[in-house]
User: Fold this.
Amino acid sequence: QLVSIEQALRMPSHVRVVAVGDYNGIELDATKRYLFATGHGVPNLLRYDVSNWNMATLSKVDTGSAQSFAYDDLLQEIYVFNSETRQLLTLDGETLEVKSTLAVSDLSPGDVWIVVDGRTNTITLASEADQKSGVPFVVLDRITGAVLDKRALDPGNILLGRETSRLYLSFFRRRAAIMQYDLRTRSILAEEPAPQKADRMLVLDDQDEVLL
Assistant:
């Protein structure tokens, strides 16, 4: 109740609450009309129409309340990992139906971050590794599903530098560092100390900067 009172007091008139719940990931589509959302309180992917917030489409596909997803503007595909079934799902961005599935059974248990890179045709899965079992970091060939790289890295966040095909990794649990990984050569280019329990990042491609 206190939160709603504070919102009413502080919120500007041009701001509105369109949904309340446990959301972890949101992203606009290529047209900037649709906003996709997922999270621990969202068992199926949601799509909101920005021009009419009352128009929300719920995918029929069970994503296991996935923390995150990746959206490909060019192919209009959504990639989400169902931790319960251990499957990487490819959804059609328009119909929100399954286009394909891929078993990734050895990925470490935990919340999973996903990055898709059209330049290298790769999908990267990175688990926060709640348990020290399996492999927390996997790079897949998007077309064949073949495993291109595996590493004992359990980042708390990964982001893509779109112009460079370089991943930026920050860590929340077992490592105090920020790391740069090249998807073209599948190698670590740089690692620098960072505060412990770093949470989220922002990549500014036009300024060649990473905010942590």
